[in-house]
Every structure is written in structure tokens, then in C-alpha cells.
Amino acid sequence: MLAATALTVALGAGACARASSAPGPIAHPTSADALVLKVETGGGFVGPLVSLRQFSTFALYGDGRLIVPGPQIEIYPGPALPNLQVQQVSEAGIQAILEAARRAGLLGPSRRYVDERVADAATTTFTLVADGARHVVSVYALAGSPGGPSRPQAVARLGAFLSRLSSLKSWLPHGSLGPETAYRATTLRVYAMPYQRVDDLTEPPVRWPSGTLGGFAPFPAFEGTRCGTVSGSELQAAIRAAARANELTPWVADGRRWTVVFRPLLPDESGCR
């Protein structure tokens, strides 16, 4: 049976100040790097390389920037750098998204849903910052949860909301969604681990342009993995080098070979957290 467990959130006065039926605009952060709504799906029975390459599927910020994964070229191995796209959402569009989030139940208390009938599935986490509070709702096996009467309406609403986020143009107010362009991150998170050849493919090595990978800090989540960030001129050098590489390229640094995973940081992200 799918069970819901409410999690307490200490965010000060006003955490649940707004009744779900209250009229008028829904307050939200407005600064450029302030998160409004993020959807992330991760975990499940996947290896470290897949896990480290998992990105937010939807990230909306206070200035109206919406960052989502763009189309991926169907080749193997794939490009070293992921394709992220950004577009501008007007305030009317933001309000429409927030109202849809409210109807999906995301303005309530933080909570998580688990489903013991499904094994080794991913967890989808919705983070909504609105009405002066941060609401975090996670659903295990949202895409794979069995349907029918045994599926709570709360989970069904979240699944429907997730589906709507992939087709904004079909329901947002006309003119509220700008064109997509490539997202240019100002900082790149870099994961490095000892190189292991995959599927007997022999890829030409690429030299790491910024000197060291071994000097990055250990990343405890995966044994042998290190993590660091590059920005400024080092970022541009890494991007140029990555253009000559793919996901399975061996990178040469510190007298050894590495497998490298790149993650462009979103406006609300920093470091290796």
C-alpha cells in the first residue's frame, strides 16, 4: 500500500500561512539565482556514472529563467557536455505554473511517498519556494507506481503535474514563454574517477587543461571519486577540451587517466553539494 509520511519543516512564521483556496497572486522569490520550482529524479538501481549525470528536469528561477535538458543527440558514446536549454517565463506564466503546483498539492507541508510494491525505482522530488516557505515533496517510483484505485489521488495529481511541466506551451498564457537558447553556466562541477574502459571501446585521450584532477576533494558518495569546480578562464578551457571528448573519453592528468563527468551548475547550486 502506498503510504504518505508527513515531514516537519522549520521555516519560521508563514510556512503554511496561505490557505490553498486563497485568491490572488502566489508570492515567490524574484532574484535571479533564487529557486522557485525544481523537479529532480534520481536514485534507483543505477551505477555511479549514470547517477552523476542525472540533472534536474525542470528548474524555474525568480527572474523567470527556466532551465531544462535539451534534445540529446542519439549517438554512443554521448557528448561529454550535457545539453541544457534556458527560456524566459513571464510573470503571468510563473503564476500559472504556481497555480498548477498549488492544485497538485505542492503548497502543503513537506512530505514523502513510498511504495513498497516497486523495487529499485527512482525518486522524484519537487522543491517549491512560494508563500515564504520551502515545500519539498518526494515520490518514490512516481513514473512506475501502479495505477488504479490503489494509487492515492495525491500521487496521481503529482504525476499529472509532472506531465504538464513537459508541455508548458500548450497551457501557459499566450506569449508567456520565450524561445529556447543554450544555457551557459558560469561554473562547471567536475567529477573525476579512475579510468576504466567500457565495452572494449578505445577512445583517444584528452589532456585535462587545468593542471590537476587528483587535487580535487574526495567525493564520499562514490569510492575513488573526486569532485571540484572550474570557472572563469579554467571553465572556458574545460569547455573547449570537452568539445573534443565524449562520455567515455579518458582524460589525462597527474600522470594517470581519469573518467570525467561534467555538470553545469544551475543558479542555485554551488560547489560539490
β-strand percent reads 25-35%
CATH class of the largest domain: Alpha Beta
CATH architecture of the largest domain: 2-Layer Sandwich
Report the end-to-end length measured between terminal Cα atoms: 33 Å
| Count of separate DSSP helical elements | 4
Radius of gyration: 20 Å
From the spread of the alpha carbons, the general shape counts as globular
Roughly what percent helix? 10-25%
CATH topology of the largest domain: Mago nashi protein
* H-E string: EEHEEEHEEEHEEEEEHEE
Give your account of this protein's structure.
This protein is an alpha+beta fold and 273 residues long. It has 2 domains: 3-170, Mago nashi protein, CATH 3.30.1560; 185-264, no CATH class. The chain is 15% helix and 30% strand. The chain contains 4 helices and 15 strands. It has helices at residues 48-52, 91-103, 153-165, 232-242; strands spanning 3-6, 35-42, 56-61, 65-69, 84-88, 111-114, 123-130, 133-140, 181-182, 187-194, 206-207, 217-218, 226-231, 250-253, 256-264. The strands form 2 sheets. A 9-stranded mixed sheet has the order 1-6-8-7-2-3-4-5-9, covered by helices on one side. A 6-stranded mixed sheet has the order 11-14-15-10-13-12. Strand 3 (56-61) and strand 4 form a beta hairpin. Helix 2 packs antiparallel against helix 3. The longest helix is centred in the middle third of the chain and has 13 residues, at 91-103. It starts with a strand and ends in a 9-residue tail after the last strand.
